[in-house]
C-alpha cells in the first residue's frame, strides 16, 4: 500500500543517520570515531593524535588510565574481538610527529572563573577555559596538583602531560589555599567549578539535575569524583563543564543539557566479517603497521545500512533525509519559472527493489517515496518523457493484439489455474513459456494462459492512467477465466499483483515443479554455480528454496552469494532506469557480477539476459529444468525479443490449442545488418522495424541525400517523439544494407 508523502516526511525524522557509534556514545569524551579511525587506517598518526588530543586534553593520562567502556559495546566482540582502542590511542601518541599542544590566538575575555580543586577534573576544566582565554584561577588546599592521580599513575607520566598541555595557556594556580566560603568566592568570579575530588568538601551544595554540572546555587557548578565519577570520567566532566559555564556567563541560565551518552543505531551481525585481532608487540604496544591493521578492523559503526546496501544511496552518497529535501524542492520548486530539476534524474534512478526499507531499522521506505514523487512529476509534465518512452511502448506491444492472449483450453468453461509468465520470459526465449505451459497442462489440463505485461513499466514511469488500464485488463482476463489461482514465473509480476490485485491468489511455477518432483534430465554433474535471487524475491523464501532444490537436482553444487535471500539486490532492470541513468545501471551490473566467478542460475529472465550481455555465464532455471540452453547463450536484441513474443502467441494457438492462426503479413523490406550493428541498435533501443519505416519513407518520398565519400544514402524520419537517422545502401528490390543508425529527441524543421 502506498505511503502518504506527509507520512514519509514524518518518518524521515526518525532517521538515525546522525546517531553516534557505540564506542563514541559510551566514551566519556565522545571521541569521534569516524574522524579518528580513518586517519589511523591511513597511517596519518599526527592527524589522528590531534583528534584524540582535542577530545581528551590530557592524552598520556587518558590513554594510561582509561577503563575502556568501548570494549563492552563494540559489535566485533560478538564475532571475534573488540577493537583495541586503548592501544590505538597510544599508537597515535607514539607515532605522531608533533606532540606539542595547539596554540589558539584569541583575544582575552573579561570574564573570571574560579576552580576549586587542582585534581585532574579541575585542571581539565582550567585548561579548556584557558584555551578559550578566560581569566582562570585554580585553588588547591594541598601543596601539589594532580589529586587522586598520585594514587593511580607514575608522577612523570601525568605531571609531564599536564605541563605540556598548559604550555601555551595562562592561568593562576593558588596552592595551599583552601576555600572556606564559596559565597565570597562567587562574589569575585563570574562562575565557579567545584572539583574537590573523592571525599572532598561539597560546601553544602546539591546537584541541580535540570542542568549539566549545575548545583543548587546559581553560577556554581560541580563535577568529577566529587559527584561519584571515576578518574577518566572526571577529566571529561571538567571538559564538558566548560560548555555549561559558558552558557551561564552568556545568558545567566544553568539549564545547559547533559551531553548525550547513548545511541539508537543497530548493527546487523550478519554482515560482520570475522577478522582476527592484531596482537601487540612484546612491549605491549603496536608497531605502526600493527596499528593500521587493527584500525582497519573497525566497522566505524553508524546507521548507514541504507548507504551500504542500497545501490542508489551508495551511488549518490545521500541518506534518506537529504534525498527527501532534494526531491521536495524538485517536486515543489521555489524558482520563479516553477521548474525544479535538482533531483529529476535521482527520482528516476530508483530500482524499486524495496531493500532500503528492509535494511532500515526505522523501516523508512525511500523507494515508495521516490515512486510517488515520480507520479507527481509525471502529472505535472515535469518528468522527461524519454526516460520511459521506450518501455511504455514496449509494454503496449506486449499487451497488443500480436502478442497478448487470454485463453482457456478447449472443453473447459473455467480454469482452476492460469499461467501468467509475464512479458519478458517469452521475449527472452519463447520455449521457456511453451515448455512450462505444456508441463502445467499435464498436471491440470484446464490451466488457462494469460499473456500480458503486469504493468510494472507504467508504475515505474509514474503514468497512473496507463497503469490503471493495464490492471483492469488483467482483472477482466482473470474474471473471464473463472477467477483461477495464478501461476507466476516472474517475481515482479507477483509483486505487482500483490500490490494492485490482492484479490488474486497465486503460486510460483518453480514451487509447483519442486513439489511435483519434476524429472530433470540435465548433465551438469558437480558443476559449481550460484543462484542469483531477483530483488523482488526477497519476501519469497519458499520460492528461493524451490529454485535451489531444482538446481541441486540438476546436478549443480551451489555456492552462496554475498547478497541473496532476504538481502537480494537488483540486477539493474528494476525501475527500468537504464535510460535515465546509464552509468548507474552499469555500476549496478558490475557490482552484481563481482560477487562470484561462478556461473549464475537466474529465475528472472531479465537478470539472466542482463548478465549474459556482459559475457557472464548464466543459466535460467528453465534451461536446467528443460535442458534448453547452455550458460553462454547470447541474449536476444530488443527486435528479437518482440519477434519472440509474436512467435510465442502463434505457437500456443497453433501447437498447443491446435487452432488456425491468422497469417501475418511480412514486411516487404529486407534489411541486411551485421551482428555488431544489431547489438549497437539494441543497446540504443532502436528497433529494426523503426529502421525499416525510415528507409521506406526515404525511398518513397525521395527524401535522402547521397554521401559522396561513402556512396551511402542518409535520411531521417520522426516516429512518435523520436527522430531516427539511417545510413544505408540499396542492394536489390526492397533490399537494403544498413551501415549505421541513431535516434535523438530533436525535431527537424523542413521547408
Automatic annotation (TrEMBL):
Domain 4Fe-4S ferredoxin-type, by residue range, is 340-369
| Keyword terms, alphabetized | 4Fe-4S, Iron, Iron-sulfur, Metal-binding, Oxidoreductase
Xref: InterPro entries: 4Fe4S_Fe-S-bd, 4Fe4S_Fe_S_CS, Cys_rich_dom, DPD_II, FAD/NAD-bd_sf, HdrC_iron-sulfur_subunit, Helical_ferredxn
One MF term in the entry's GO annotations: oxidoreductase activity
Q: Cross-referenced Pfam families, in alphabetical order?
A: CCG, Fer4_17, Fer4_20, NAD_binding_8
Q: Which GO terms describe its cellular component?
A: plasma membrane
**Which NCBIfam families does this entry report, sorted A to Z?**
diclust_near_Sec
Q: By what name is this protein known? A: NAD(P)-binding protein
Q: From which organism does this entry originate?
A: Sedimentibacter hydroxybenzoicus DSM 7310
Amino acid at each position: 500500500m502506498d505511503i502518504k508523502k506527509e507520512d514519509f516526511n514524518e518518518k524521515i525524522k526518525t532517521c538515525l543517520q546522525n546517531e553516534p557509534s557505540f564506542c563514541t556514545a559510551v566514551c566519556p569524551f565522545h571521541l569521534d570515531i569516524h574522524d579518528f579511525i580513518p586517519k589511523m587506517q591511513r597511517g596519518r598518526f599526527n592527524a589522528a593524535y590531534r583528534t584524540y588530543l582535542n577530545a581528551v586534553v590530557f592524552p598520556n593520562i587518558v590513554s594510561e588510565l582509561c577503563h575502556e567502556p568501548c570494549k563492552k559495546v563494540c559489535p566485533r566482540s560478538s564475532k571475534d574481538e573488540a577493537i583495541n582502542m586503548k592501544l590505538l590511542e597510544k599508537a597515535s601518541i607514539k607515532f605522531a610527529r608533533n606532540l606539542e599542544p595547539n596554540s589558539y590566538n584569541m583575544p582575552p575575555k573579561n570574564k573570571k572563573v574560579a576552580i576549586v580543586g587542582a585534581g585532574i577534573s579541575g585542571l581539565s576544566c582550567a585548561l579548556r577555559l584557558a584555551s578559550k582565554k578566560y581569566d582562570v584561577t585554580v585553588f588547591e588546599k594541598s601543596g601539589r596538583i594532580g589529586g587522586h592521580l598520585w594514587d593511580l599513575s607514575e608522577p612523570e607520566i601525568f605531571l609531564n602531560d599536564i605541563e605540556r598541555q598548559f604550555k601555551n595557556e595562562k592561568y593562576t594556580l593558588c596552592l595551599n589555599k583552601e576555600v572556606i566560603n564559596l559565597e565570597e568566592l562567587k562574589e569575585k568570579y563570574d562562575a565557579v567549578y567545584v572539583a574537590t575530588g573523592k571525599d572532598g568538601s561539597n560546601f553544602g551544595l546539591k546537584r541541580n539535575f535540570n542542568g549539566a554540572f549545575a548545583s543548587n546555587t546559581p553560577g556554581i557548578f560541580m563535577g568529577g569524583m566529587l559527584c561519584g565519577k571515576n578518574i577518566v570520567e572526571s577529566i571529561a566532566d571538567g571538559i564538558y563543564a566548560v560548555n555549561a559555564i559558558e552558557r551561564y556567563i552568556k545568558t545567566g541560565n544553568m539549564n545547559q543539557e547533559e551531553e548525550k551518552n547513548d545511541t539508537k543505531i543497530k548493527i546487523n551481525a550478519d554482515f560482520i566479517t570475522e577478522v582476527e585481532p592484531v596482537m601487540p608487540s612484546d612491549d605491549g604496544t603496536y608497531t605502526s603497521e600493527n596499528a593500521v591493521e587493527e584500525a582497519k578492523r573497525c566497522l566505524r559503526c553508524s546507521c548507514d545500512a541504507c548507504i551500504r546496501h542500497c545501490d542508489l544511496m551508495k551511488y549518490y552518497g545521500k541518506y534518506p533525509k537529504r534525498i527527501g529535501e532534494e526531491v521536495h524542492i524538485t517536486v515543489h520548486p521555489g524558482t520563479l519559472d516553477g521548474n525544479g530539476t535538482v533531483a529529476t534524474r535521482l527520482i528516476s534512478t530508483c530500482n524499486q527493489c524495496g531493500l532500503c526499507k528492509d535494511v532500515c531499522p526505522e523501516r523508512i521506505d525511500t523507494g515508495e517515496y521516490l515512486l510517488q514523487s515520480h507520479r507527481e512529476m509525471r502529472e505535472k509534465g515535469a518528468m522527461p518523457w524519454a526516460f520511459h518512452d521506450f518501455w511504455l511502448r514496449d509494454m503496449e506491444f506486449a499487451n497488443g493484439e500480436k502478442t497478448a492472449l487470454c485463453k482457456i483450453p478447449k472443453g473447459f468453461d473455467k480454469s482452476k489455474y492460469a499461467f501468467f509468465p509475464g512479458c519478458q520470459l517469452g521475449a527472452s526465449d519463447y520455449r521457456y513459456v511453451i515448455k512450462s505451459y505444456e508441463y502445467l497442462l499435464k498436471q491440470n489440463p484446464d490451466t488457462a494462459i494469460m499473456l500480458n505485461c503486469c504493468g510494472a513499466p507504467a508504475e515505474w514511469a509514474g503514468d497512473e492512467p496507463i497503469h490503471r488500464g493495464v490492471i483492469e485488463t488483467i482483472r477482466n482476463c482473470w474474471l473471464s477465466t473463472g477467477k483461477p489461482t495464478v501461476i507466476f514465473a516472474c517475481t515482479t509480476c507477483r509483486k505487482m499483483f500483490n500490490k494492485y490485485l490482492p484479490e488474486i491468489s497465486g503460486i510460483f511455477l518453480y514451487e509447483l515443479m519442486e513439489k511435483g518432483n519434476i524429472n530433470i534430465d540435465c548433465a551438469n554433474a558437480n558443476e559449481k554455480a550460484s543462484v542469483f535471487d531477483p530483488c523482488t524475491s526477497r519476501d519469497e523464501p519458499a520460492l528461493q528454496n524451490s529454485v535451489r532444490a531444482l538446481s541441486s537436482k540438476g546436478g549443480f553444487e551451489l555456492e552462496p552469494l554475498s547478497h541473496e535471500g532476504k538481502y537480494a539486490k537488483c540486477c539493474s532492470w528494476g525501475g527500468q532506469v537504464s535510460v535515465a541513468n546509464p552509468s548507474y545501471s552499469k555500476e549496478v551490473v558490475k557490482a552484481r557480477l563481482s560477487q562470484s566467478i561462478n556461473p549464475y542460475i537466474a529465475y528472472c529472465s531479465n537478470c539472466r539476459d542482463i548478465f549474459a550481455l556482459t559475457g557472464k555465464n548464466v543459466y535460467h532455471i528453465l534451461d536446467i529444468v528443460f535442458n534448453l540452453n547452455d550458460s553462454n547463450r547470447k541474449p536476444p536484441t530488443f527486435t528479437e525479443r518482440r519477434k519472440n513474443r509474436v512467435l510465442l502467441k502463434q505457437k500456443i494457438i497453433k501447437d498447443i490449442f491446435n487452432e488456425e492462426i491468422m497469417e501475418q503479413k511480412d514486411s516487404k523490406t529486407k534489411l541486411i545488418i551485421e551482428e555488431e550493428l544489431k547489438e549497437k541498435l539494441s543497446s540504443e533501443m532502436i528497433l529494426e522495424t523503426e529502421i525499416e519505416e525510415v528507409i521506406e519513407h526515404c525511398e518513397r518520398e525521395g527524401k535522402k541525400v547521397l554521401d559522396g565519400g561513402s556512396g551511402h544514402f542518409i535520411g531521417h524520419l520522426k516516429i512518435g517523439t523520436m527522430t531516427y537517422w539511417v545510413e544505408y545502401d540499396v542492394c536489390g528490390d526492397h533490399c537494403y544494407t544498413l551501415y549505421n543508425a541513431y535516434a535523438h529527441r530533436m525535431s527537424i524543421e523542413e521547408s
